[in-house]
Q: What sequence folds into this?
């Protein structure tokens, strides 16, 4: 054991004695094409030389004590410096830039189209919509055309061989047929069904299906007119609704087939009720 | 170098099924036949059952595939509506019972919900787990032990637990049990005390209606016995004209601002100590202060300081917990806590949920953005209560109705449409008949069951 100590000590002392190779800072590089980096060489003993294994990937120019590395294309190269103390290697990795898409989100109205540009694709590009009833995609020459179909959110996923990018698409209704189907009349009319049965089966007040839009609208207007002078629950009910709402709910009620509706009160609703 | 940040993470995982487990919003969930959305509803009262019914009906009309699961602890629902007529022997208790069998397309589960996990999006009931995309909670109300001043009412909890005080505010067997107490009241000196809690409570006219039909029953069956109403509110909270007129006609003593501090039973009678004085009674019917159903304690953060749930009236989605909708008595909008309007809230909620599914909207804010706020029509609901006033002979009833509108201009807060506020000028026999037509329709509209009650 005691005979080994001096050897160990010697190995430990070598750097201090200055018998080691030069140092590189940084000691490795990851770059994308077009980028330039400067590496500093320190602790140079004597003259410094340099070799570059793949100059097509990155060019390296030595101007002691600095090496200027210019990234050229995807790949890797090893730049080696040598002096009296030995050699040191610099690993340079040049990665292709990831594909990017622009913009990363789109707001469209139903029926409207927008485009997304794809930059730096690697290999072939594909594009898909998460919900093609909300937005569809067509890809041509690195240009993605997105068309809004109906209100909602969809994600457009654009992929190349390496990367996947997502474009968030928000489609708002255009107020017409392209948006969410309006259920305004249906929902308003449903607020009558607590009192006027919609499908029959129970007794109750007069049926309100099987009438025309005009009939319902004019009855509602008549009942509104009576609200102040003749207090009745239905007159108050009629006062709830705007003209536009009355039209919407009347259209829905008129569209319901009268068959089966109010079947239980075909003989007069409340007036014939025995309790 | 990598720009793989959290945003990308959400987007990328959003493509897979991992979102349910991470609880992160997915931009890309799809509603189609292969992957129907799960809507779970807890509570099959007027609000929950209506939502289940209309979700199924409207989804099928729209060709949208969804799975609707309705969970209730009871296989049979007992309607509180009309239950005061069970109390005075006008209707058999069973005439107000409903099952869910006629709600075609709804899968009904009878189980007590023991856990709700809003991160994993699942409900545990009866040892089974139900995953949901959207959850609707409609548990109705539960009771508090405090009076209108926030002080505890000594003796109340024990009396309710031992069923010596029976609120009978949830329908069913409790009503029959209270009826038995009522029939024990002696003629001559008998006293029935009804204690009304500070608003908000279920069915604003309901307590006054109870005072009337009980007073009418006593007048007919226990001459000389009387009703004392101890109201924690400063005045009659609904149909004041109707009820104050009926109270004087029937000999009901009405005491406002009465906050109970203790109730105790000794020597066959109740002693009530209240801020307005001490009272004795043969039957003490305390309607305790109310809060959203205890079920909501399983969703931390969903209740406001008044122990009801704040919701966005466009969708009835909680303003606090996305993905959870609260309807009926448990929610905190200014609409009355009542079954007719709860049924209406259920329809609004069902309609909104179908649209949220269609537009891939994860929450109300996204739904509004997707559809465009100015394009969303006003949400209109209405409340209607029919109150029996006199049920014995020459029966009469009153009504109270009002509409509510929520739209962009009022920040989607349901707001009373004052021109539509209507109440019966006086109780009539026609209203008594209408009351049954209305209730039968409401029952049908909610449970798909045809029932001749009246
Ligand atoms: C005397 C009286 C008269 C009334 N008159 C009228 C009237 O004229 N008009 C009107 O509109 N309203 C009236 N009401 C009010 C009406 O009954 C209530 O507002 C209505 O029942 C509330 O409906 P809901 O669906 O919110 O709750 P509920 O009807 O209470 O239903 C809640 C359901 O949730 C279930 N549940 C709760 N917790 C759990 C759990 N942990 N697990 C599983 N299931 C659970 C319960 O079993 C219950 O079935 C009256 C009420 C009373 C008492």
A:
């Amino acid at each position: 054991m005691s005979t080994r100590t001096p050897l160990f000590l010697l190995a430990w002392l070598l750097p201090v004695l200055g018998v080691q190779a030069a140092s590189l800072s940084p000691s490795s590089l990851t770059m994308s094409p077009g980028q330039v980096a400067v590496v500093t060489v320190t602790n140079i003993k004597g003259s410094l030389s340099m070799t570059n294994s793949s100059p097509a990937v990155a060019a390296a120019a030595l101007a002691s004590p600095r090496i200027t590395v210019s990234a050229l294309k995807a790949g890797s190269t090893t730049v080696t410096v040598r002096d009296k103390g030995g050699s040191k290697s610099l690993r340079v990795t040049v990665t292709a830039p990831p594909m990017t898409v622009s913009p990363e989100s789109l707001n469209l109205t139903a029926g409207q189209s927008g485009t997304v540009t794809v930059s730096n694709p690697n290999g072939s590009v594909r594009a898909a919509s998460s919900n093609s009833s909300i937005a569809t995609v067509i890809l041509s020459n690195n240009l993605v055309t997105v068309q809004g179909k109906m209100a909602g959110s969809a994600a457009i996923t654009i992929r190349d061989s390496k990367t996947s990018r997502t474009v968030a698409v928000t489609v708002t209704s255009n107020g017409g047929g392209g948006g969410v189907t309006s259920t305004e009349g249906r929902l308003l009319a449903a607020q009558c069904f607590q009192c006027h049965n919609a499908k029959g089966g129970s007794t109750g007040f007069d049926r309100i299906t099987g009438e025309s839009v005009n009939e319902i609208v004019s009855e509602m207007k008549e009942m509104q007119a009576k609200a102040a002078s003749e207090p009745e629950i239905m007159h108050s009910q009629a006062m709830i609704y705007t003209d536009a709402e009355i039209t919407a709910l009347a259209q829905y009620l008129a569209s319901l087939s009268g068959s089966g509706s109010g079947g239980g009160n075909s003989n007069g609703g409340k007036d014939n009720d025995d309790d | 170098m990598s720009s793989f940040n959290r945003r990308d993470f959400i987007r990328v995982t959003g493509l897979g099924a991992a979102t349910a487990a991470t609880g992160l919003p997915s931009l890309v969930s799809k509603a189609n036949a292969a992957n129907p959305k799960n809507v779970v509803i807890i509570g099959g009262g007027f609000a929950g059952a209506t939502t289940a019914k209309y979700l199924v009906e409207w989804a099928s009309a729209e060709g949208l595939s969804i799975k609707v699961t309705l969970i209730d602890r009871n296989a049979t629902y007992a309607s509180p509506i009309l239950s005061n007529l069970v109390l005075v022997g006008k209707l058999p208790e069973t005439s107000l019972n409903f099952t869910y069998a006629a709600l075609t397309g709804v899968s009904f589960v009878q189980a007590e919900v023991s856990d709700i996990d809003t991160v994993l999006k699942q409900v545990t009931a009866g040892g089974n787990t139900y995953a949901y995309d959207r959850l609707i909670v409609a548990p109705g109300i539960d009771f508090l032990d405090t009076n209108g001043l926030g002080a505890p009412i000594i003796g109340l909890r024990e009396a309710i637990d031992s069923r010596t005080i029976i609120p009978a505010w949830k329908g069913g067997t409790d009503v029959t049990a209270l009826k038995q107490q009522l029939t024990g009241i002696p003629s001559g000196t008998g006293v029935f005390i009804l204690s009304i809690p500070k608003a908000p409570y279920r069915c604003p006219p309901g307590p006054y209606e109870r005072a009337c039909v009980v007073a009418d029953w006593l007048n007919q069956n226990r001459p000389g016995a009387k009703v004392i109403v101890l109201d924690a509110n400063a005045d009659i909270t609904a149909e004041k004209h109707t009820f104050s007129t009926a109270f004087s006609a029937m000999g009901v003593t009405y005491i406002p601002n009465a906050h109970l501090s203790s109730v105790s039973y000794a020597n066959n009678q109740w002693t009530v100590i209240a801020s307005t004085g001490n009272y004795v009674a043969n039957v003490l019917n305390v309607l305790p202060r109310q809060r959203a159903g205890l079920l909501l304690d399983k969703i931390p953060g969903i209740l406001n300081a008044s122990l009801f749930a704040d919701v966005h009236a466009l969708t009835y989605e909680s303003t606090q917990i996305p993905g959870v909708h609260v309807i009926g008595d448990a929610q905190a909008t200014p609409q009355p806590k009542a079954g007719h309007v709860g049924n209406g809230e259920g329809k609004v909620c069902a309609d909104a949920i179908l649209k949220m599914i269609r537009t891939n909207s994860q929450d109300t804010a996204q739904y509004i953005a997707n559809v465009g706020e100015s394009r969303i029509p006003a949400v209109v609901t209405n409340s209607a209560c029919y109150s029996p006033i006199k049920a014995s002979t020459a029966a009469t009833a009153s009504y109270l109705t009002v509409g509510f509108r929520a739209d962009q201009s009022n920040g989607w807060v349901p707001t009373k449409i004052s021109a539509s506020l209507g109440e019966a000028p006086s109780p009539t026999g026609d209203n008594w008949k209408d009351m049954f037509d209305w209730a039968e329709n409401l029952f049908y509209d909610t449970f798909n069951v045809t029932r001749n009650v009246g």
Residues B 42-48, 71-74, 77, 80-81, 83-84, 112-113, 138-140, 169-170, 202-203, 206, 210, 293, 295, 328-329, 337-342, 385-386 surround flavin-adenine dinucleotide (CB under 6 Å). The mean pLDDT of chain A is 83. Helices of chain A lie at 5-17, 184-190, 213-226, 233-238, 243-255.
